[in-house]
Write a structure and sequence with these properties.
- By secondary structure, this protein is α/β, with parallel strands linked by helices.
- It contains 7 helices and 10 strands.
- The strands form 3 sheets. A 5-stranded parallel beta sheet has the order 2-1-6-5-8, sandwiched between helices.
- The radius of gyration is 22 Å and the shape is elongated.
- It starts with 7 loop residues before the first strand and ends in a 5-residue tail after the last helix.
- Bound molecules: 6-chloroguanine.
- 6-chloroguanine binds next to strand 5 and strand 8.
């Protein structure tokens, strides 16, 4: 359950606070931000540097390439961010080393009071400060980004759209990919016959123009299953296992 203690609050710790709200200031999420459904507090990690060079990173112990973010600096930033909000918040460090972000975790975050996101640059963050704050390490996929900021935006995009009153009636959640554990069926709109650049007439599947709602639903379900089997055998197996245990949603 969302709390009644004010809007869902995102605190983002970053060396590039000017990257925010960025795309999250537009469209659906931007309107929700203006309406006070959620709040975004981008905080500059460098404000917590203590030496005269304002350094936030140092060379890795044991050698190797790149630089590591200092535990004392990150600790100070986390301390200030945690004290700026009312109750406890999950603290998430965006890193390709993390557990993959999934829709179920996104749903739980949306049901909570908010989140504190830590964005790293360089090779990473000193492990001790992550351990000390019981930080959840999260990845958004098997590829490497240059920093956690765009990953934080992805996490916030996915989460904020689930907050009450962000989506309009038209954007129903019930059919979309992952909400039922299946990828979504394909979509079509007018014109019913469209000619592509090679001169091929491309027709909309007959069933969709038949006006037969039962057959449409059946076709869409078949398509969703076929696409899931072909593209995401991992998801398909997961579903099969859930069904065996009688845990289907
Ligand atoms: Cl969360 N951060 C970075 N820097 N790279 C990533 C990532 C996160 N997820 C996938 N690649």
């Amino acid at each position: 359950m969302a709390t009644d203690a004010g809007p869902w609050q995102a605190s983002v710790l970053t060396l590039f606070p000017e990257m925010f709200p960025g795309p999250l200031g537009m469209s659906l999420h931007g309107r929700a931000l203006e309406r006070g459904i959620w709040g975004l507090d981008a905080r500059d990690i460098r404000a917590h540097a203590t030496d005269r060079h304002r350094s936030v990173d140092d060379e890795p112990f044991g050698g190797g390439p790149g630089m590591v973010m200092r535990p004392d600096v990150v600790d100070s930033a986390l301390h200030e961010a945690a004290n700026a909000v009312d109750g406890p918040r999950p603290i998430i460090y965006l890193t390709p080393r993390g557990r993959p972000l999934e829709q179920a975790r996104v749903r739980d975050l949306a049901d909570g009071p908010g989140v504190i996101l830590l964005c790293g640059r360089y090779e990473g963050v000193d492990q001790r400060v992550l351990d000390a704050w019981d930080v959840e390490e999260t990845s958004i996929g098997d590829y490497v980004l240059s920093g956690g900021e765009t990953a934080a935006m992805v996490l916030l995009d996915a989460t904020v759209r689930l907050l009450p009153d962000v989506l309009g009636q038209a954007d129903s959640l019930s059919d979309e990919s992952f909400e039922r554990g299946l990828l979504e069926y394909p979509h079509y709109t007018r014109p019913a016959c469209w000619t592509d650049r090679q001169g091929n007439d491309r027709l909309v599947p007959d069933v969709l123009t038949s006006g037969h709602h039962g057959r449409v639903a059946e076709w869409r379900n078949e398509q969703a299953e076929k696409i899931t089997r072909e593209r995401r055998p991992d998801l398909w197996r997961q579903l099969a296992e859930q069904d065996e245990k009688g845990q289907g949603r």
